[in-house]
Amino acid sequence: MTTRLYIPRETTASSLGAELLVDAISTEAKYRNLPIEIVRNGSRGACFLEPLIEVETFTGRVGYGPVQLEDIPDLFDANFLSGGQHRLALGSVDDLPWFKQQERLTFARCGLIAATSVDEYRKLGGFAGLRAALSLSAADVVKTVLDSGLRGRGGAAFPTGIKWKTVLDAEADQKYIVCNADEGDSGTFADRMIMEGDPLSLIEGMIIAGIAVGATKGYIYLRSEYPLTQQILDEAIANAAAAGYLGSNVAGSGKTFELEIRMGAGAYICGEETSLLESLEGKRGQIRFKPPLPALKGLFGKPTIVNNVITLATVPVIFEKGAKHYASFGRGRSLGTLPFQLGGNVKAGGLIEKAFGLTLRQLIEQFGGGTASGKPLRAVQVGGPLGAYFPEALLDTPLDYEDFAKAGGMLGHGGVVVFDTSVNLAKMARFSMEFCSVESCGKCTPCRIGSVRGMETIDRIVAAKDEQERDRQHLVLKDLCETMESASLCAMGGLTPMPVMSAVKHFKGDFQ
Amino acid sequence: MLDFFQPNRPVRPDLQPLSAAAVSATGVDVSPMMPVVSPAKLQEFSLDEATRVVQEFKDQPGALINALHKLQHTFGYVDEAALPMLAKLFNVSRAEVHGVTSFYHDFRRSKPGRYTIRVCQAEACQAMGSEELSAAIKQLLGCDFHETTADGVFTLEKVYCLGNCACSPNIMVDKQTYGRVSLASFKALTQQLAQKAAGSK
């Protein structure tokens, strides 16, 4: 009997040698005359267990990980194809506390199925959301998204339903759906994981958006640092088209929706929506003035929905299970779940999807298991390179958009980067300014020049000979940050002060 | 911002190669789990070939960046001689093509080494020692960021986030990402890559 084995085809697993395991296991199985079928799934999100191999046995699916090349003969000897006992055996992966404590809605299928297979996708509820959406009027589709409480998962947390309604109400001969897959924020990888592990959920979400607002063309703007993601998405789009979900008769509805991937070219600023639209038009990725909103005058001047990958990939489950079900997770105005990405100096990093409301400490301690180095934790940066640095004392802040804003931070795209005691926050603050100076699009002065002046000022603070001089330079930095915050055109210049000032506020001792 | 029209500078004499003893002193096990990728097959630049490969983008709206990617994929860089041709193809000014080409970090103006190595500089990798790793890599290869090694095998670049932040520090060689890289594993990998490059000349 042929045994089904799951080995992720995914960047994290691949970065740790998964492709070598595929070859080694196939060879070893042939040599031992054991029939196997290797299924290429996505990652289940437990990066610390990668490469994680799962085997389908009579008693269910069991995992082994992290597997190294030298473990292969050993695993065969231990009869792992029948779920045999081994040092790396994890039992049922679903029953590991790391997974059991999660609430997976957007990532429900990720890692469970052959990533690009339409059949397997459908078996686990795929395209049920589209079917439900097709039976509704356009206004009701938009109302469902509004009722779910879904907010933009790219970082700005703008209510998705309101954006969709603006585009629905706009009159135009052509409208567009644009997926922002320029996941440039350091410390984030949820977009990549869903695109590699369950790309059809993103495609389905974009189709629903298109049908809701009358857009017939969608673009996925993907960052060039993700070449494997591009391959997988390409395959998924081809499979969806072959199964009749893309093209001139979407799922037999008579409606048209086409999808195209466009690659970015290494500019962080192209994650900003207007800059992204410029780039999609083949121009320099310089941001646009708002208004007009992209919802009214977006790509090629037409009404355009620009949503993040996770936002769009969450849409199908809202239609499959209902807006009420989705809104029953989370709290206050932060409804539903957020896929948190735990990285940096942490023992058990990876993707943790949880309803809003757990604390930063719970995430880092219960899931992350503390720092990788074993040294005490000193700082946590949440929300990417423009997010605040929090000290240990703020770890009990609940992960919720409003609570984080109250504590002087932002949740952003849900990236959490952990630092141990070896970190110097003056250096990190300088890095934030440096990053802004390298990646600024150059359109507005506070960002373009302010970031360079910020670097110089931090250097002067650190090199100051006496307290008086240091205080004077701190005043300059504060003033500069206020200017950047209030006078920059977009979030790049406007938010760079956040990591800088939070470092000054909580770790002032590092600045000398 | 990478200076687009600054050709490769000569190898830095102040960056002396590290001794083997210094590398092995790091005491980290060398992981055998690093796939040894083949060097990209690049063509010598010719305007005729460049014109031919970008024709498919002619009627696609806003596809200038696609065309630039195609040129870089084919030749390893975007030759300045191709810019007027692109301007004509997309009906934009040469200044605009230059502006786009120089705006994006990805597009190179000169031919890279056989492999392009990108070392992540972002926060999560910094939390796992990427700064020390970067300094050691520069010493090991004897070249700085945006430069190519003397033997023409490696071009060193920096990158901000490869999206593998739970397995830091990360590097990328051409299109392959490598996680949890140590100086010792980097050395083992680059030795094998250099051998592969020598074998495929």
What does this structure look like?
The complex is a heterodimer of chains A (about 500) and B (about 200). Chain A is an alpha/beta fold. Chain A folds into four domains: about 5-100, Glutaredoxin; about 125-325, Rossmann fold (3-Layer(aba) Sandwich); about 330-420, Ubiquitin-like (UB roll) (Roll); about 425-510, Up-down Bundle (de novo design (two linked rop proteins)), CATH 1.20.1440. Chain A has helices at about 10-15, 20-30, 70-75, 95-100, 120-125, 130-135, 140-150, 160-170, 190-195, 200-215, 225-240, 275-280, 310-320, 325, 360-365, 400-405, 425-440, 445-450, 450-465, 465-485, 490-495, 495-505; strands at about 5, 35-40, 55, 60-65, 90, 175-180, 215-220, 260-265, 305-310, 330, 335, 335-345, 350-355, 375-380, 390, 415-420. In chain A, the strands form four sheets. Chain A has a five-stranded mixed β-sheet, covered by helices on one side. In chain A, strands 13-12-16-14-15 form a five-stranded mixed β-sheet. In chain A, a hairpin with a 5-residue loop joins strand 12 (about 335-345) and strand 13 (about 350-355). The longest helix of chain A has 21 residues, at about 465-485. Chain B is of the alpha+beta class and about 200 residues long. Chain B has two domains: about 45-105, no CATH class; about 110-200, 3-Layer(aba) Sandwich (Glutaredoxin), CATH 3.40.30.10. Chain B is about 40% helix and about 10% strand. Chain B has eight helices and five strands, in the order H-H-H-H-H-E-H-H-E-E-E-E-H. Chain B has a five-stranded mixed β-sheet with strand order 2-3-1-4-5, covered by helices on one side. The longest helix of chain B has 17 residues, at about 185-200. Mean pLDDT of chain B is about 85; it is low at about 1-30.
CATH class of the largest domain in chain B: Alpha Beta
Annotation field: number of helices of chain A: 22
CATH 4th-level superfamily of the largest domain in chain A: NADH-ubiquinone oxidoreductase 51kDa subunit
Biggest pleated-sheet summary of chain A: 5 strands, mixed
The helix count of chain B comes to 8
Bin the strand percentage of chain B: 5-15%
CATH topology of the largest domain in chain A: Rossmann fold
Unreliably modeled segments of chain A: none
Low-confidence stretches of chain B: 1-30
Spatial order of the strands in the main sheet of chain B? 2-3-1-4-5
What is the string of helix and strand elements of chain B? Answer: HHHHHEHHEEEEH
Q: What pair of chains forms the biggest interface?
A: A-B, 68 and 47 residues
